[in-house]
Write a structure and sequence with these properties.
Length: 268
């Protein structure tokens, strides 16, 4: 089985900025298995050393958003000496802004995320979405602001997380041929439900790549074109019986699909 490649996000605040940027970039590497660990409120050298010791043990990628120039430089220097690949997402922008605006940055952690209602709404949305991923807790579907429905590997989870980071409570329900969806799905306001479909050939390629990454045989039924067509036919039959929005996610980035979801549900 393929081991997930670790990415360590170091931040002197919430780490939300770093995670959003990394998640956006990862949409271009959907066939890779990664594990993101967010390390928040990094304000001291000892915290830096502890975080980098862990990253070194796992040979992880280090991504950081640190406004304090001294700490940011320490992370850069330590990573270089340890042979860790690292990305500073903030310092280059701060330096260019300082040059353009003619003044030094305040170097105050957390200025990007004022503790306001919008911030708490995002946090609540993310927590809800994680708890209701892949059909978990169907009894709470009525509390979701958006419900995504589709067969395996139609981008339900990454799309859910992306929308959650924009403040929407999202639940997603997998459709499995021969197994009835949870009855609570059909009690949800249909104006909040989105069915996801995809080109079968594209899906076969995505599933085969997923199996190869897991060290499994890509020729099994899960990645078989005809089997996938049957799954999509089953999904479309369910979609036709309900006045749900249906979106084709083929060859679309998560951001594009998310925008289409919000537009078609009249949430944008």
């Amino acid at each position: 089985m393929t081991t997930a490649q670790p990415i360590y996000l170091l931040s002197d605040a919430t780490g939300e900025t770093a995670e959003k940027m990394v998640m956006a970039a990862l949409t271009q590497f959907r066939d890779k298995v990664v594990r993101i660990k967010r390390i928040n409120n990094v304000r001291t050298k000892n915290q830096v050393y502890e975080a980098l010791d862990e990253a070194l043990a796992k040979r992880g990628l280090v991504v950081y958003t640190i406004v304090n120039r001294e700490l940011a430089q320490l992370i850069h220097d330590e990573c270089d000496s340890l042979g860790l690949i690292n990305v500073d997402l903030l310092t280059p922008v701060l330096l260019k802004l300082a040059q353009y605006l003619g003044r030094s940055p305040k170097e105050m952690p957390g200025l990007f995320h004022g503790v306001d209602d919008a911030y708490f709404k995002r946090v609540e949305a993310i927590e809800f979405t994680v708890k209701h991923d892949d059909g978990q807790e169907p009894r709470n579907l009525h509390l979701a602001e958006i419900v995504l429905v589709g067969i395996s590997r139609t981008s339900k989870t990454p799309l859910s997380i992306y929308l959650a980071h924009r403040g929407w409570k999202v639940a997603n329900i997998p459709l499995v041929k021969g197994i009835d969806p949870p009855p609570q799905l059909f009690e949800v306001d249909p104006r909040r439900v989105v069915g996801l479909v995809v080109d079968p050939q594209r899906l076969a390629e995505v599933r085969a790549a997923r199996l190869r990454n897991l060290g499994q045989d890509p020729r099994v039924a899960y990645a078989d074109y005809e089997e996938i067509e049957e799954e999509l036919t089953y999904a479309r039959k369910i979609f036709r019986r309900h006045p749900w929005v249906v979106i084709d996610v083929s060859e679309k980035a998560v951001e594009e699909t998310a925008n289409e979801v919000l537009v078609k549900l009249n949430l944008k």
